[in-house]
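pls design
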């Protein structure tokens, strides 16, 4: 007599069918019942499927990294365009002065003969006692292809007084002061925008300004105004002056206060300025028409009111400790915003995969790992679409169009995969909430960390609630605990 394997009894007419991952959601059409328990592999359990999804999420970092590399490349191209504008139009400008520069000749030591071919010449710099500077910036956005830069033309007016001190220190006591060659000197990073026929007023006389040098980069161009001093003045003599500059620059305008007391006012029709430097404005106002900022810096600029120097020009520092100024910032810097959005790519992928996983866990639908991968590629395209559309349209318009495109593509695909309009609508709603949250976090500066942390906490809480009764065992079909 041969032994035959026992035949499993078929369920009766009213017996329930086994559930693959959990209970069926209302409105979801049941798919074909899964194979018997003995034919299932470990990947059919929630724990096994979750492990495969995690591996797929790691592989999906490759397209995300490729998109991030492309964003960095485009940002580098924009920086190249900005460098080109700095060379062709003008760099970020730094202005210092005016100071009264008086040349002097040092006597040779007694034990050495006088070399008349190379006189030992130096300069005494006397800063203004009172200095008022008014700067008006006229910014504009210039484009080169898809990239742009903010440039400006600035009109600066200087007025003040210089009080001549007694110069009797040991360093120049025996030197010959050449008062008749004294000049009023103003320095700026680049003077290509300065008119050649500009004039100034000093001690009531109108004189022509002379441009000594014009150079881009860290060097300074200088403007000389003859002081018209005939001989040694009486200490305490006050010389009033008025002078002006016209500068062309890119993005920022900075000032190095070289007076004993300086009042600085900068205005411009720009709605997103940034105030930089060690000293912030005393008063500022920003509205729809532009900005106005006022500084007041008091104190001795130099000890004793004068000091010797090798050159007549004052310092022209691009980022020294005493520099203050204005940056013409973009209200919505495109590549900065795109880079911020791209950093959330892994978070978006994880939540999208998790949503698919929950669809499987609480309904009779089966989603293949390849379908997870196609969904991941769709979500990964968001950052690429964002940078491609933001370059010609701006960040906000590019973000809206990219969001609508990805939501339509991923939601329609989900609808066809799960075969349920309700689940497709749930997935579309999830994406809408994610993209809305991301926009808020990206445009926020002070509270972006808080918003992101709260959102992560809320997402984790929702996941824990949805899977609180899920049987994660790998022994076969998962069941929901009663």
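designed seq:
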């Amino acid at each position: 007599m041969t032994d035959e394997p026992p035949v499993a009894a078929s369920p009766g007419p009213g017996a329930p069918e086994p559930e693959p991952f959990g209970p069926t959601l209302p409105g979801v059409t049941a798919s074909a019942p899964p194979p018997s328990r003995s034919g299932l592999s470990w990947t059919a359990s929630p724990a096994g499927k979750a492990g495969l999804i995690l591996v797929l999420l790691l592989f999906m970092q490759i397209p995300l990294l490729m998109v991030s590399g492309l964003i960095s490349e485009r940002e580098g191209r924009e920086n190249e365009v900005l460098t080109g504008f700095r060379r062709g139009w003008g760099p970020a400008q730094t202005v210092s002065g005016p100071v009264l520069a008086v040349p002097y000749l040092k006597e040779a030591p007694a034990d050495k003969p006088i070399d008349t071919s190379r006189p030992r010449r130096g300069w005494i710099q006397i800063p203004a006692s009172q200095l008022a500077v008014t700067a008006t910036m006229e910014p504009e956005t210039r484009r080169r292809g898809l990239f742009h830069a903010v440039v400006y033309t600035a009109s600066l007016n200087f007025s003040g007084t210089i009080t001549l001190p007694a110069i009797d220190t040991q360093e120049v006591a025996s030197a010959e002061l050449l008062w008749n060659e004294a000049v009023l000197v103003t320095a700026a990073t680049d003077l290509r925008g300065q008119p050649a026929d500009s004039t100034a007023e000093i001690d009531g006389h109108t004189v022509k300004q002379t441009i000594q040098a014009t150079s881009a980069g860290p060097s300074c161009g200088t403007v000389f105004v003859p002081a018209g001093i005939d001989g040694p003045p009486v200490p305490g003599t006050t010389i009033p002056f008025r002078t002006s500059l016209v500068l062309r620059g890119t993005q920022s305008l900075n000032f190095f206060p070289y007076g004993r007391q300086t009042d600085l006012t900068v205005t411009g029709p720009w709605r997103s300025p940034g105030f930089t430097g060690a000293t912030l404005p005393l008063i500022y106002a920003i509205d729809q028409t532009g900005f106005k900022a006022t500084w007041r810096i008091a104190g001795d600029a130099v000890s004793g009111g004068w000091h010797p120097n090798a050159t007549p020009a004052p310092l022209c520092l691009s980022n020294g400790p005493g520099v203050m100024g204005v940056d013409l910032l973009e209200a919505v810097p495109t590549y900065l915003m795109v880079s911020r959005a791209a950093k959330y790519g892994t978070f978006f992928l994880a939540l999208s995969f998790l949503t698919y996983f929950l669809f499987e866990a609480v309904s009779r639908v089966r989603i293949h790992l390849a379908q997870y991968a196609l969904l991941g590629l769709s979500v990964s395209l968001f950052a690429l679409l964002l940078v491609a559309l933001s370059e010609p349209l701006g960040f906000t318009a590019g973000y809206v169009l990219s969001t609508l495109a990805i939501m339509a593509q991923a939601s329609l695909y989900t609808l066809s995969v799960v075969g349920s309009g309700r689940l497709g609508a749930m997935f579309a709603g999830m994406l809408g909430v994610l993209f809305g949250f991301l926009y808020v976090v990206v445009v926020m500066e002070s509270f972006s960390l808080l918003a992101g942390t709260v959102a992560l906490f809320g997402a984790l809480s929702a996941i824990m609630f949805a899977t609180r009764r899920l049987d994660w065992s790998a022994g076969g079909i998962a069941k929901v605990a009663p």
